[in-house]
Amino acid sequence: MIMNNLNIMIVGVGGQGTLLASRILGTVGIKKSYDVKVSEVHGMSQRGGSVVTYVKMGEKVYSPLIEKGEADIIMAFEQLEALRWIDYLKDNGNLITNEQKINPMPVITGKAEYPKGIIEKLKENYKGTVSLDALNIAKQCGNTKAVNLVLIGVLAKRTDIEKEVWLEAIKETVPAKFLDVNIKAFEAGYEVS
Amino acid sequence: MVKRLLMGNEAIALGAIHAGVNVVAGYPGTPSTEVLETISEINKGEIYVEWSVNEKAAMEVAAGAAIAGARALVTMKQVGLNVASDPLMSLSYIGVKGGMVVLVADDPGPFSSQTEQDTRHFAHFSNLPVFDPSSPEEAFEMIQHAFEISEEVELPVLFRPTTRICHSCSTVEIPEERMKHEPDGFVKDPKWVIFPSLSYKKHIHIEKLQKVLSEKFSGFKYNSLSGSGKKGIAASGIAYSYAREMLSGFEEEYKLLKIATPYPFPEKLGLEFLKGLDEVLVLEELDPVMEEALIELSYASGGKQCIKGKKTGDLPFAGEYSFELVKSSINRFMGRQELPKEKNTVPDLPVRPPVLCAGCPHRSAFYAVKKALSKQKAVFTGDIGCYTLGNAKPLEMVDTCLCMGAGVTMAQGLHRVEPDVKHIAFIGDSTFFHTGIVGVINAVYNNTDITVVILDNSTTAMTGHQPHPGTGKTAMKSVSEKIDIYGLLTACGVKHVAKANPLNQSEAVETIKQAVDFKGPSAVIFEAPCIALFKPAKKYKIKSTCINCMRCIREIGCPAISVNNGKVEIEPSLCYGCGLCSQVCPKESIGGVEA
Questions:
Q1: In the CATH scheme, what architecture does the domain B538-594 have?
Q2: CA dihedral defined by B319, B322, B325, B328, rounded to 10 degrees?
Q3: Cβ within 8 Å, pair A37-B170
Q4: Residue B233 — pLDDT band, cuts 50, 70, 90?
Q5: Residue B521: HSE in the Cβ half-sphere, 13 Å Cα cutoff
Q6: Chain A: closest CA distance from residue B304 (Å)
Q7: What is the CATH number of the domain that holds A87?
């Protein structure tokens, strides 16, 4: 799957572990000798806000941002966020989305409604969509915070980068005391069809 | 040589370490924080690193080290430089001996700031050179040159990355060897004492230096000129990287000027660029600094170039530049056909603004104060930190926010105009030490009847949990005396100081009522740690006795509580067990269970 350039977007809600996911992807890119650029969001927007991280790899990458319609893969940690950023996906791109719903404040206070049928609609429009209950899988692996590794497992299976490279990158990036649960979560994601 | 994926701020930190930095001081502020954090993390003790109480203190610590011959780095965000501008302005006259780099991160957008101010103006204002990296890998190398140039001209230098450089990661090649810099110590000399007569002489000297620096920068490795043609693009910072990416393959059609030192502007290189051009497009975020330099240069050299940028309305002043913006402005400038309209299939969706975390003790503190003052006219002044988010519905407990420490003092001005209104100033623990104390002394000295509420969560939360004087932990990972907020307030002469746990609503409400009723300045310290500092002991659940009255939803705005299929639910993966909802529930239908 990896060709001249690979553009990946990671979208979700601040606090869901999107930063660690982007670091793992970036490290995998370096291991495969690609030039890598990652753009993250820190600070205020991280407090439960909508967050987006860009990961780009290729021969030579200058800009850390991805423009609309140019993402090969979008990895979404939450349904509404998957929909919010979907215009960035290439027509034949892959969407990997967690089925979890996290209500934003306007929905909680009743000012807005959470859109219905998001996953169905996305699957209809993008053939390469995979959806899964990553929160539940992470929970079964022993830690709800391992959602990011479940999703990375799903993504890893859909690239032609060797599994060993992913595992090495995870070992280098994840804090040692959480390594076991994270590897377990990655393996579980890797098995998702 | 090792290849690593480094965030811009990490690259800057490693660059400083490779330059043999001896002393590092700073105050946290997005997007600058990780520079000092990284140095603190990997420091084995050979570098002195500190989180200072505020940016002014940090600048002065670094200045002291630099005049003793050390290589010094001071870090802050752009608004931090406002606080530290007093020492900076004088330091440009006094100068330094060891290289001193003033790292100031700008925040176009802004993502996490009060203003979109452009630090390059401070460079011009203070007559100090400024470096503007266009990528993390460039920043890693460039900061090493910045130390060298600072030593050469004996001036501190500014190093100004923007958010998109600070928080982007790149492949960076890191050489094994590092420079070692041995400070030769402070040598007494009248030149370190600023006096009007010295300032006059120094002013003449630094004006001369501007020419020297401009000349030097025309040959600086990171300023470059390429291509040919009648049209030219001048770009800096991340805008250069966007331009570079989109122009790959069209190198022959235009001239490209890359500027890494916007001040003093490399005039010789600029003139070479302008030669033979009819039109120029300037791509730079924030203010038209390069654009003005090029206009001035063109005019002074009798040029007739049409210089397009912000002043001509071709590019915006406000906000961060996107790749798309740079691309479409270049396409227009080059007379290329606009590309087909971008995809736009997503309907209007509910927005997701940042919120106080589930379990955040600030929510409980705000709710208690709201309840305590529900029958009185009150104004709530806020400050800078996570708790600024208390302005949002349904809490709506932050009526003002200006800058660090301003809540305490603005409350006093408000109170002088409306003495019958209660004025309550919220301030976080780190902000209190930064610039809040002076406001408290001002209130006591002038006997202004306000109540200061210190939201003490034992950390600097918003920027990622740095220690501060109240925590007793330092960036050297040593333990020092914890500075006691209660004792400080008492020593400042506040006659009514009380502590309360905001998670206990009845205690918190009662404590606030007593403080507000006290005539004269009073203070309440709400003590409860940030949720990032511990694991939840309890989680809360809705019981079957819930009557769906929705009070919890309506009043506290907790992101873990929402309505699903008409029923109130608490999302267990989000609940952090603060228990505020259970104290708000009129039917005792929310109960805690062990997590």
A1: 2-Layer Sandwich (3.30)
A2: 170
A3: yes
A4: very high
A5: 22
A6: 32
A7: 3.40.920.10
- Inspect the interface and report whether the beta carbons of A47 and B248 lie closer than 8 Å: no
Residue pair B213/B244 in contact by the 8 Å Cβ criterion: no
Do residue A48 and residue B352 have CB atoms under 8 angstroms apart? yes
Contact criterion met (CB < 8 Å) for A36 and B169: yes
User: What residues of chain B, 371 to 400, have a C-beta less than 8 Å from chain A?
Assistant: 386, 389, 392-394
- Coil/strand/helix, residue A169: helix
> What's the complex ipTM?
0.93
pLDDT at B338 over 70: no
CATH of domain B2-217: 3.40.50.970
In this structure, whether the domain defined by B361-533 belongs to CATH 3.40.50.970 is answered with yes
Per-residue confidence (pLDDT) for residue A45, from 0 to 100: 62
**Above 60 in pLDDT, residue A3?**
no
CB contact under 8 A, B241 and A114: no
pLDDT mean over B95-102: 98
Residue type at position B509: V
pLDDT digits 0-9 by tens, B462-488: 999 999 999 999 999 999 999 999 999
- Altogether, the residues listed in chain A come to a count of 193
Window 137-156 of B, Cβ < 8 Å to A: none
CATH among 3.90.1570.10, 3.40.50.300, 3.40.50.920, 3.30.9.10 for B224-334: 3.40.50.920
Nearest Cα of chain A lies from the Cα of B185 at a distance, in angstroms, of 39
B574 reaches A (C-beta below 8 A): yes
Confirm if B195 and A66 have CB atoms less than 8 A apart.
no
In terms of Cα–Cα distance, which of B285, B311, B328 is closest to B160? B285
pLDDT of B342 reads: 75
Bridge partners of B23?
B48, B72
**Digit-coded pLDDT (tens) for B253-264:** 899 999 999 999
Q: Do residue B164 and residue A39 have CB atoms under 8 angstroms apart?
A: yes
CB contact, 8 Å: B355 with chain A? yes
Q: Where are chain B's structural domains?
A: 2-217, 224-334, 361-533, 538-594
Residue ranges of B 312-331 with Cβ closer than 8 A to chain A: 322-324, 327
Chain A residue whose CA is closest to B325: A67
Please tell me the distance in Å from A30's CA to the nearest CA on chain B. 7
Q: How far is A108 from chain B (nearest CA, A)?
A: 5
Domain count, chain A: 1
Q: Chain A 21-80, CB below 8 Å of chain B: which residues?
A: 22-23, 26-27, 29-30, 34-50, 61-69, 80
- What integer is the mean pLDDT of A93-99? 97
Residue B145 Cα, gap to closest chain A Cα (Å): 22
| A64, A66, A135 ranked by CB distance to B168: nearest | A64
Whether A164 has a pLDDT exceeding 60, the answer reads yes
What gap in Å lies between CA B200 and CA B44, rounded to an integer? 43
**What's the whole-number mean pLDDT along residues B424-431?**
98
pLDDT for A7-66, tens place per residue? 999 999 988 889 899 999 999 999 999 999 999 877 666 678 999 999 999 999 999 999
| pLDDT category of residue B231 using cuts at 50, 70 and 90 | very high
Could you count the other beta carbons within 10 Å of the beta carbon of residue B52?
24
pTM: 0.96
Q: What is the pLDDT of residue A4?
A: 66
- Closest-CA distance, B30 to chain A, in angstroms, reads 6
Mean pLDDT across the stretch B323-350? 87
The neighbour count for residue B322, using CB atoms within 10 Å, is: 15
How far apart are the C-alpha atoms of A96 and A72, rounded to whole Å? 11
Number of residues written out for chain B: 595
Spell out which residues of chain A touch residue B463, defining contact as CB-CB under 8 Å.
43
Angstrom distances, CA of residue B589 to CA of B394, B548, B568, B595:
21, 10, 11, 18
